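The protein record minuted underneath.
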Amino acid sequence: MPVRQEIKSQLAKLLATEDLVVEHKKVETACFNVHTRVLTLPLWERASGTVYDLLVGHEVGHALFTPDEDWTKTTKVPAQFVNVVEDARIEKLMKRKYAGLAKTFFGGYKELNEDDFFQLEDEDISKFNLADKANLYFKVGNFVNLDFTPEEKEIVDLIAASESFADVLIASEELYKYCKKEQQQQQKVADFDNHETQSASTSSTGEDAEMEQPQDEQEGQSNESESSQSEENSDNQGPAQNEQNATSPSNNQEEPEVRTAESLEDKLRSLVNRQGEDNVYVELPQVNLETIIAKNSEVHKEIDDCFNQQQSSYNLVMQEKGSVPINLYKNVDLEFQKFKNSAQKEVNYLVKEFECRKAADAYSRASTARTGVLDTARLHSYKFSEDLFKKVTVLPDGKNHGLIFILDWSGSMQNVLLDTCKQLFNLIWFCKKVSIPFEVYAFTGEWRRCEYDYQTGKYIAADRTPHYEKKEGVIAIDESFSLMNLLTSKVSGNKLEQQLKNIWRIAAYFSNTYHSPYTYPVRLCLSGTPLNEALICLHQIIPQFQTQNKLQKVQCIVLTDGEAPPLPRHLEVQRGWEKEPYLGTRHINPDNSFLRDRKTGMNYKFGYDYHGYTDTLLKNLKDKFPSVNLIGIRVLSSRDANRFIQLYHSWKDKKYEEIQSDWKKNKSFIITDSGYDAYFGMSATALSQEAEFEVSDDASKAQIKSAFVKSLKTKKLNKKVLGEFISLVA
C-alpha cells in the first residue's frame, strides 16, 4: 500500500529538529542540499511503512550529522568505504537522539534482509571483504552470522566508536587499507595458482608436440615464435595486450569494492515509483503591503470626492432648473442613524458578555498568596493550625486583544453587503467601547484598475507596480489585487462615525441600486473574490498589527459569502524562439502539489476544490500564528446552506444532521472542521430582519403576535452567534 508522503515528510521534519525542507520527488536516490537545506527523498511508495521510516530516519541522519566539506582533499579513500563508516555513525547518533528509532531501524533492516536487498542468497559471507562484512554488521548484523578475525575486530570496533566525521575518515582509511591488503594477498594466491596451472599445461603441451613433430619443424616454430615475441616487445606491446594488462589482477590497479552497498542501492531503486507526475512544492510570496493596501485616508478621500462631486453636480442642475437642492444622502444617513441607535442594545450585550467572560477567565487563573501579616482572627487556633497569616488573591493581568476584519467586496455580496456590514458595525462599536484596536480590510480587484479624477472627469492610468518578486515555485498574485483599509481604530471617534456612514452609503446603494439617487465611487466597484490573496497578506499584516499595538491576542474575522478560486504558481518555461526561459504561470494540481513553509518547516498538501485550497492556506496561517483565532462568518442563502455544509460533512455523518438541525431551528450553525477555528454559517435573510418589535396602530392580534415572535427569533440568533463569537475573543 502506498505510504502517504506528507506524513513521512512530517516525520523527517520532526526528526530533523531544524529548518529542513523535505521534498518527495521522482529521483532514484536521496540527496541533501546543505545550502538550501532541502532534503530530497525518492517516492518510496512500494516500501512498507517501517522501511519508509527507516529510510527517512537514515537520510535525516545524513542531513543532521554529515558535514558539508570536501573530504577528498584530505584523504584518497574511495567514497564507498567512507559511506559505510558514515552510515554506521549517523545511524548510531540517530538512535541515540531518538530512542524509538532503534525499533524502526531493527524492523526495517529485518524486512530488507528477508527480501534479500543485500543479495546474500547462495553467497558465502565468509569470503566477503571486511568492508562488506562491516556494512552487513552495522545494518543487518542481528540477522546474519558474521565472524571477524582479531585484526578485523579492531577495525570494526574503530568504526563503532566513531563519533565525529574526523573519526569516520580515520576509520574508513584503516578499513580501506585492510581491504586493499586483503585483495592483494588474494591476488597473489590467484596469480600463483594461475602460474602453476599454466606451467603444467605448457609442459604437457610441449612434450606432446615434441613427440608428434619432426625436429626441423620444431626448430622452425621455435625460431618463428621467438621472432614474433621479439617484435611484440620492440613495439612496446599492442593495444590488445595493454588492455589485457590493464584489466589483469596482477597489475594491482583494481580497487576493492563494497558489493553489499551496491546491491542495497540497486534494490532500493525498485521501491521508487517512477510513474505519474512529480511532486510540486510551492511557497508563498513575500508581498509588499505598501502596494497592496490602500490606506484608510486614501480610501475615504476617494469616497468623499465622489459623494461631494455628485452632490455639487446635483446642486448645479437644481439651480439651473430653479429648484431647491436637497441632500442626496439624507434618507440613507437617517437609516444609518436609526440602525446605530437600535444596535446599542446588541453592542452593550457584547460588552457585558465580554467583561463577564474575561473576569471569569481571570478568576479561574487566580492564585492565593500569604502576605506575611498575621491574621488576628486566627490566633486562637495556633495550637492546631499553622495557617495564621492573611492571604491575598492575585489576579493575572488580562491579555491585550486586537481584531482584524477581512470583508468580502465581491459582486456576489451585492444583495447581502448591507446586512453583513450591520454585523461588522456591531463588532466595530463593541471594539470601540472596550478599547480593542481593530483594522478592517476589504479585498478587491478593482482599486488598482484605474483612477478617476472627479474634478476633471478624466481617468488616470492605474499603478501596476508588482506586489512581489516573481520567481519559479512561488504562488502568483494578480497585480490588480488590493486590500482597502475601510476602517481603523487609529482615527478619532467622530471621524470613525463618518467613515462608517460612508461604507453604509455604498452598501445601501448596492442593495438598492435602481432606486438610489447617487452611485458608488469608481474604485470601490465590487469585483471577484480574492480571498486567498488576502490570507497570504495576513502573514505580514498580523505581526505588523501585533507589534504596532503591543498585542498578545489577535482575532482575525473573515466575512464572506463564497469560495475563492485557487491561485496559480510561477513556472519557468523554455520556449524555442527565446534564449532566456519565460516565467509563466500554471495551475496547482492538488494531486501532487504541496505548500511549503520554510519558517515552520511544514509541508501542506493542497486540498481539493475551492474550499480545500483556502483551508490549506488557513492551516498554514494557523501554524504560523498559533495564538491567533481565525473566525469565518459565511453569509448564506437558504438554497446554499446544504451545499456549504456538505463541503465539510457528508449527509451520512451524524454531525451533518446536527448542523442541519441548528440551521432549521436558528438559521445559523458553527463548523469546527474547516481551516478556521470556527466557521459561522448565518442566514442572509435572518440577518436582514430587523430585531425591533414594530407594528402599525391598526394591527390585528395575529399580526402583533407574528411581529413579536419574529423580533424574538432575530434577537435570539444575534445573541447566539455573538455569544459564540465573544467566547472565542475572551
